[in-house]
Write a structure and sequence with these properties.
290 residues, alpha/beta, Nitrilase/N-carbamoyl-D-aminoacid amidohydrolase, 5 helices, 23% helix, 28% strand
Length: 290
């Protein structure tokens, strides 16, 4: 009898529009397509119900925010139950008047709402003015026990921080998911674009290596504002190897088998968790060591 624990991961990479209902319909179609291809867990891209509004500071997008659980989870929970899939849904959360988060909801395969992760690292760069909209997460780094395994969720800018991946892995996550919205600025040189994309992919593959668990990143495609989202959604195995990579410019729904049982052997041969010097890391909580 095989000891493999194969989990089929669905990646829904799409374009978004200004029509929230259409975006949700596109996402639902993608979930159904992924399930038909055998997906057990389906991850949607960051803020999939809208255009990426953080490219400028404007009060109008606050009208897009919703409670979690709320309107979107009410739509997705019955679909998760019907199809028997876990759904990771990145949403614009309105916590209360004047308090908003960039949040991922996790729905189990029986349709139950398991909880949420609030994006911890909030960027503030040209075309990514997220600090104007989002309060940093306060739920910490966490994992969710689903029918198909214990998964960790981080969001976009979180993916540049090894601390986030490590702390999520230390909660027992067997696989990391990164709903994402990242692209190339109009008019940038091709060489710069390539360096940016390569860095983005490399840092996430490094999280897989350092923690001995697979990593899944789901990005959007299409031109919005002054940038083109570069797609490239991918799955890295627990040694950082690329198991699958999507195109840079096409809407795609892909399902990738991932063997969660490989992590134990990997961690035995590359015992990074065993050899961590937790007695020597207190300075990591400082902004800078002067």
């Amino acid at each position: 009898m095989s000891d493999n624990r194969i989990v089929n991961v669905g990646l829904v990479q799409t374009r978004c529009t200004s029509d929230a209902a259409l975006n949700m319909a596109t996402a639902v179609k993608g979930i159904r397509e992924a399930a038909a291809k055998g997906a057990n867990i389906v991850c949607l891209q960051e803020l999939f119900t809208s255009l990426y509004f953080c490219d400028k500071e404007d009060y109008a997008p606050f009208k897009l925010a919703e409670a979690i659980p709320g309107t979107s989870t009410d739509i997705l929970q019955p679909i998760a139950k019907e199809l028997g899939v876990v759904i990771i849904a990145s949403l614009f959360e309105k916590r209360t008047e004047g308090l908003y988060h960039n949040t991922a909801a996790v729905i189990d395969a029986d349709g139950s709402y398991l909880g949420k992760y609030r994006k911890m690292h909030i960027p503030d760069d040209p075309a990514y003015y997220e600090k104007f909209y989002f309060t940093p997460g306060d739920l910490g780094f966490k994992s969710f026990t689903t029918k198909f395994g214990k998964l960790g969720v981080l969001i976009c800018w979180d993916q540049w921080y090894p601390e986030a991946a490590r702390l999520t892995a230390l909660t027992g996550a067997e696989i990391l998911f990164y709903p994402t919205a990242i692209g190339w600025a109009d008019g940038e040189e091709a060489s710069v674009n390539k360096k940016q994309h390569d860095a983005w992919e490399t840092i996430q593959r490094s999280h897989a290596i350092a923690n001995g668990i697979p990593v899944v990143s789901v990005n959007r495609v299409g031109h919005e504002g002054n940038q083109t989202f570069w797609g490239g959604s991918f799955v890295a195995g627990n040694q950082g190897e690329i198991l699958f990579k999507a195109s840079h410019d096409k809407e795609e729904v892909n399902v990738v088998p991932v063997d969660l049982s490989k992590s134990d052997a990997t961690r035995m041969h590359w015992p990074f968790l065993r050899d961590r010097r937790i007695d020597a890391y207190s300075d990591i909580t400082k902004r800078f060591i002067d």
